[in-house]
Each structure stands twice: as C-alpha cells, then as structure tokens.
Write a structure and sequence with these properties.
The structure is a single chain. The protein is 20% helix and 34% strand. By secondary structure, the protein is α/β, with parallel strands linked by helices. It has 3 domains: 8-102, Elongation Factor Tu (Ef-tu), domain 3; 114-222, Rossmann fold (3-Layer(aba) Sandwich), CATH 3.40.50; 234-326, Roll (Ubiquitin-like (UB roll)), CATH 3.10.20.30. The protein has a 6-stranded antiparallel β-sheet with strand order 4-3-6-1-2-5, with helices on one face. Strands 9-8-7-10-11 form a 5-stranded parallel β-sheet, with helices on both faces. It has a 5-stranded mixed β-sheet with strand order 13-12-16-14-15. The chain binds FE2/S2 (inorganic) cluster. Residues 266-269, 271-276, 291, 293, 306, 308 line the site of FE2/S2 (inorganic) cluster.
Length: 332
C-alpha cells in the first residue's frame, strides 16, 4: 500500500500535557468518534513546512466510551522529522485530516497469563490493553519503564486499574527493567506484548528466544524512529536511476526517494512490515538500522535496510530499489 488518502477530518477538542515532553490530544472526527479495539492507531496527516505533508501514526489511548473523543499522546521529538512539532503546535478547534482507526497490534482473544512491557511513549497502545485485561481473570502484569518518574505518563490511571500488577522502572532512579527475570517468572503458556523503542524490542526478542518461548506468543509494536545515533544528513546513490540525492536529518530515505520519483512500496512507516526494504550495494559510514523487521544478524550483514526509518551515519550509501522503470517501459 502507498499513499494514504485522507478522507476524514477531525477537530482538536482538548490538549493536556502529561509530562514535559508528552502531550495528550483529544480529537473528534466529523460524525463522532467510532469504537476501536485496544492497540488501534490513527493515521494523521501532518504539515512539515514548505508545502510538504506526511503521515504519522498514533495509538489511540484507553478504551472507547460512549460520547468520548479519541485520545492520542504525542512525544515531542527533539530533533525529529517535524511531525511531533506540528502536533505540538495544534490548538483547540484546529482541523486535521485523519484516517482510521486501524489495528495491527491486536490483543489476542484467548485468555492466558499476560505480561505487558512498555518503554516510554510505547505505553500508549498498552493502556487500553491493560484496562481490558484487568477485567479478565487471567494473571496480568505490566512492566513500564521510563527515563524519570515524570515521564511515567498514565501511571496513575494504570495503578488505579492494576494495583500491584503494575511495576514501574525509572532510569533516573537507578531502576532497570530486567526482561530475562520478567520472562522467567511467567507461566509456560504466557504471552507478552511489548511496545517501545527499537533497542527494547530487540532486547525483548533476544530474551524471549533465550527463554525458549514460542515466538508467536511475543507480540510487539514500535514507534520506529529511535536509532543508535542522532539523525544526520547523508547521501544516497541509486545507480539504476542515475540519481545522487541528499537525505537531510529531518527527512527519511523513503521520503527523499519518493520525492525524486523512485517508487518504493511501503505500509507501516515504522520499520515493522519490511515492504520498503531496499538492497544495499555499498556503504561509506555505518547503517543505523531503526527497524524491527530484520533480525539482528540480518542488520549486521547490512545487505538490506528499511527506507522508512533506517539511516546512515557519517557518509553515504548506494542502493538499488525494487522499482524498475526500464522493465516497465520495455513491457509497455
Ligand atoms: S514501510 Fe513498513 S518497514 Fe518501512
């Protein structure tokens, strides 16, 4: 799937700062907020300046309630690609193109012991899951890690719903989330749902596999823009199309390729589906893989990268894309 067609409009009905860097935005779509399932997200069209627009996906927070607006929570990325800055400039009454909700991170229906693991703003899809699971009888635990106590957004709501079943970990307090210990304490038939930055997801996958647990019992979602180094400008060469392009720090490789007319299939825009993967022919510098689609071994090999999120540090890259204009014209 390529460009989202935004056919809905929503009005901003409320703004609430949950922490110095996280703002909750309430949205009322024309016609009223429809029901959604825990883990759903909303696509939002953001304006990035110079006439450029892009889309961002934000999890819907909590569970639907009659007459209630949708809620999303936006972490201000600094530096980011401009989407969060746009969202933070919104005022009550502003109008916004939206699409959805959709759910790619569904809560499995079968009742089984569940561990929810949240890292930072990754808490947003898990709030609704925690509220839904708290009503079930199967054992439940949520492990929620953040940089500091004031970044533990929604912790009060979660504590009210989960009580002792909520455990929080703040790096500023010297508290570390021990995934091996968390997984070791789970029943044999347990499942884990994880949402957070890419390094947390890699660690969870490794610990889950190390514990000998079934891969399908671990489900995860990321916000796909956290790398091992700050974003910087790099150069990309696409010999098949005779192109040399600059990828600025505030734009993705995918955006730059598309703007130059190189079509790249994409869907999730979060480094999860792998549709946007391109072949790496040469690299000068280091690839900062920011996806969770490729395994760590595949990332180390560096033969492919996800153009929607991954970048290059300190140099340039030469790639090939799946798009073959010469084949198209030959077939015409
Ligand atoms: S669009 Fe899904 S990984 Fe890039």
């Amino acid at each position: 799937m390529n460009e989202t067609v935004f056919t809905q409009q929503a009005t901003v009905t409320g703004l609430r700062d949950l922490s110095p860097t996280v703002r909750e935005i309430s949205l009322r779509p024309d016609g009223g907020a429809t029901a959604f399932t825990a883990g759903s997200h909303l696509r939002v069209q953001v304006q990035l300046g110079e006439g450029r627009s892009d889309e961002r996906r934000y999890s819907l927070v909590g569970l639907p309630a009659p007459g209630a607006d949708w809620r999303i929570a936006v972490k201000r990325a600094d530096p980011g690609r401009g989407g969060s800055a746009f969202m933070w400039r919104l005022a009550v009454g502003d109008r916004l193109p939206v699409h959805g909700p959709h759910n790619h991170f569904e809560l499995p229906p079968a009742p089984r012991p569940t561990l929810l693991v949240a890292g930072g703003i990754g808490i947003t899809p898990l709030v609704g899951m925690a509220l839904a699971l708290a009503k079930r009888t199967a054992p439940l635990r949520m492990a929620y890690a953040a940089r500091s106590p004031d970044e533990l957004v929604y912790a009060d709501d979660l504590r009210a719903a989960l009580g002792e079943r909520l455990a929080t970990f703040c790096r500023s307090e010297g508290q570390a989330l021990d995934l091996e210990a968390e997984f070791a304490a789970l029943a044999a038939d347990a499942q884990a749902l994880v949402c957070g930055p890419v390094p947390l997801l890699h660690a969870a996958r490794a610990a889950w596999a190390g514990a000998g647990r079934l891969p399908q019992r671990l489900r995860f979602e990321t916000f796909g823009n956290t790398g091992s180094a700050p974003a910087e400008t790099f150069t990309v060469q696409v010999p098949r199309h005779g192109l040399t392009l600059e990828v600025p720090a505030d734009r993705s490789l995918l955006e730059v390729l598309e703007a130059a007319g190189v079509q790249v299939l994409h869907d999730c825009l979060r480094g999860e589906c792998g549709l946007c993967a391109v072949d790496v022919l040469a690299v000068n510098g280091r690839i900062d893989h920011r996806d969770v689609f490729f395994s760590e071994a595949e990332q180390r090999e560096g033969h492919r990268l996800c153009a929607c999120v991954s970048r290059v540090c300190g140099g340039s890259i030469t790639i090939d894309s799946a798009w073959r204009p010469d084949e198209l014209s030959a077939a015409a």
